[in-house]
Description:
This protein is globular. It is 25% helix and 39% strand. With 109 residues, the protein is α+β, with helices and mostly antiparallel strands.
Amino acid sequence: VRGTVYLTMTAEEDAGGEPATVHIVECEPPHRLTVDIVENERTWRIGLTLLEDSGTTSLIFEQSIPPEMETSDVGTGWHWYLDRLTAAVSGNPMPKWDDYHPFLASAYQ
Length: 109
């Protein structure tokens, strides 16, 4: 399955901007999804794989990070979003972005 969809991130403080174009590169329901997210002049490749073992499902998240980007900066944002997914699925409170800033600040020291 291939196609194009549009994605708007809604949890950031400056959310609600222009949606990003997302090209579906690979889709093998229900186990694998690979997309290219086009934002400004940059393309991000994201891969998601679901693995099931003994009644437990694990999500493997992969991303190609452009060489000019700091992995600690990008990783912190996705970690926050993945923790939000966990909270939504489990019914727990959403994590606050401010709780992730100490990690981000320590990455540059």
